[in-house]
Amino acid sequence: MASAKILDGKALAATIRSEVAKGTAELAARDIVPGLAVVLVGDDPASQIYVRHKERAAKECGVRAIDYRRPANISQEELATLIAELNADAAVHGILVQLPLPKHLDATPILDAISPDKDVDGFHPDNIGRLAQGRPRFVAATPKGCMTLLEHAGIDIAGRNAVVVGRSNIVGKPMALLLTNANATVTLCHSRTKDLASHIANADIVVAAVGKVDAVLAKWLKPGAVVIDVGMNRNASGKLCGDLQFAEALEVASAVTPVPGGVGPMTIASLMQNVLLAAQALTSSAE
Ligand code: GUN
């Protein structure tokens, strides 16, 4: 039976991290150490794990991660003050506020307050707007990593039908913009989409960013489709899995990303690329 190629995000991410390390070594020769401020509010266990992974990757890449852990009961004003301080701090080239924030905080004005020049998550409206206009600066790490995976695998995007499932500001919307900029014909599906299966049946490329086990069934796929799985879920037996019905999809698709080992490591490597870009841009204009 046909078996899809498994796109190894873990290996590609390691290559990207070593490339970033080369870039930071060049900056080190000018006594510049890229600084990434990592703001973690509260004690969400998943966020703690993500932040640990980001900080480990930073170390490997020659990026100085500076930890700003704040209690869950921090006020909106206190958090805004911290962002203002980080914007003004010359040792900080990138600012990352780990999401989600505790319920009493409004993330939007916090993300808006991050200097667009230090917005390595690419969540600031300036950076989303630039992406929408096809002149990107910082691109959100997860969709950026998905594009790098597609490009590295030599998958044609121009003229292909792409379906993105999920319309979050962090993944789905920027992903749809990136694929549009790469000349795909893009359909952005979401929780109110009628007949998701019929959209997916036409897709050469599917990006699943739902956050639900079996959100994309193998029987919906067009034979030979490429599936990028952004999901990070636990199935009924507690095993880590994505949004795609993976084992069955291997018999239909031409290429799929695994979970774990697909998009996850690419997100972190892409973030490191953004930190390097920020440090390069901020230090070249200062000279
Ligand atoms: N929470 C889930 N994904 C992300 C991400 O890419 N960046 C940040 N800051 N928080 C997240």
Primary descriptors:
287 residues, alpha/beta, Rossmann fold, three-stranded parallel sheet, 11 strands, binds guanine
Tell me what you see in this structure:
This protein is an alpha/beta fold and 287 residues long. It folds into 2 domains: 31-116, Rossmann fold; 141-263, 3-Layer(aba) Sandwich (Rossmann fold). The protein is 42% helix and 15% strand. The protein has a 6-stranded parallel beta sheet. A 3-stranded parallel beta sheet has the order 3-2-4, with helices on both faces. Strands 9-10 form a two-stranded antiparallel sheet. α2 (45-61) links the parallel β2 and β3 (64-70). It binds guanine. Guanine is lined by residues 96-99, 121, 141-142, 170, 267.
Gist?
This protein is an alpha/beta fold and 287 residues long.
What share of the residues does DSSP label as strand, in percent?
Answer: 15-25%
Give every kind of bound small molecule, once each.
guanine
Task: Look at the structure and give the mean pLDDT.
Answer: 97
- Tally the beta strands: 11
